[in-house]
Design a protein that fits this description.
Blueprint: H1 3-12, H2 20-27, E1 31-36, H3 57-62, H4 74-93, E2 97-102, H5 109-122, E3 127-131, H6 139-142, H7 150-157, H8 161-164, E4 166-167, E5 174-176, H9 192-204, E6 207-211, H10 220-224, E7 230-236, H11 242-252, E8 259-267
Helix pairs in contact: 4-5
Length: 270
């Protein structure tokens, strides 16, 4: 258990809250980061369109990006600690490509990748996000980036990564967008083109965050885990049961050794 997690937990926890040790005991996994709930920042420009949408989903996500929060905020510091851990592994163990996935949809995998990348860029770390959830891409929408040619374009059309990477103008983060949707994306992860892509991004960046689909909904993660240097499981506080995490471990099987631990997301602040 990292001491910085204990310190942050003392600031955030209130009566009746579970301790980090209790959470680790329930999930049977180390807690790598405790991310407090990010309150939506008001006053940001709404999305434009022919009709004003009642709910601007991209705007809601965009308002929770760390570009709108001070570097000394609890959330920024929590993300920073994990970034330092992953960067240290990149420098000392050559572990550069990290798979991020949740058990089910809506636990904050996309937001976690975006905010980790924002923090890493602030530290001068060469960072790339690969939008691997090609069935439901959100990162490119939030960052206002074109989907194509993207990841699937690289794999299906033999384009180089450098031809397909896009930089977000307001976060300064490099992203390989998902690309055009394909019927069975899990078939792409075992191809020679995917191996070449991973080799290329390793040569260009210090840390790569690969956003994967939910483990319990699709088979991609079981295939991808063998291709990555490690995996971080995103777990939304109070939403997903430990039983679901246990199902994730069962589905990963022998690939559990790739799992570094859990990023505990959206923890209420008291």
């Amino acid at each position: 258990m990292f001491s910085w997690i204990e310190t942050l937990w003392e600031k955030m926890s209130g009566p009746g809250m579970l301790t980090p040790e209790e959470i680790e005991g329930a999930l049977h996994l180390p807690v790598l980061a405790i991310i407090p709930h990010l309150e939506r920042r008001r006053g940001l420009a709404p999305a434009q369109g022919s009709m004003m949408r009642r709910v601007d989903l991209e705007g809601r996500w965009r308002s929770r990006l760390l570009v709108h929060f001070p570097e000394e905020s609890p959330a920024a510091q929590a993300y920073l600690s994990l970034v330092k851990e992953l960067h240290d592994r990149s420098q000392n163990r050559r572990q550069k490509v990290w798979l991020f996935a949740s058990s089910v949809s809506g636990e904050g995998t996309s937001l976690s990748c975006m905010n980790l990348a924002i923090v890493a860029r602030r530290q001068g770390i060469k960072t790339l996000i690969i939008e691997g959830h090609t069935r439901a891409p959100r990162i490119s929408s939030v960052f206002r980036l074109d989907l194509e040619p993207g990841l699937t374009g690289c794999l299906n059309r033999s384009l180089t990564v450098s031809q397909s990477i896009r930089r977000s103008s307001f976060t300064d983060v490099d992203v390989l967008p998902a690309g055009r949707s394909v019927a069975y994306p899990e078939t792409l992860w075992g191809t020679p083109a995917f191996h070449r892509l991973l080799a290329e991004v390793r040569s260009l960046y210090d840390v790569i965050f690969f956003e994967a689909p939910p483990v319990l909904l699709y088979t991609d993660t079981s295939v991808l885990a063998d291709k990555m240097d490690g995996m971080v499981l995103i777990h939304q506080f109070g939403r997903t049961s430990p039983e679901r995490v246990e199902k994730v471990l069962q589905k990963l099987g022998g690939r559990q050794d790739h799992l570094l631990g859990v990023l505990l997301n959206d923890v209420p602040v008291h």
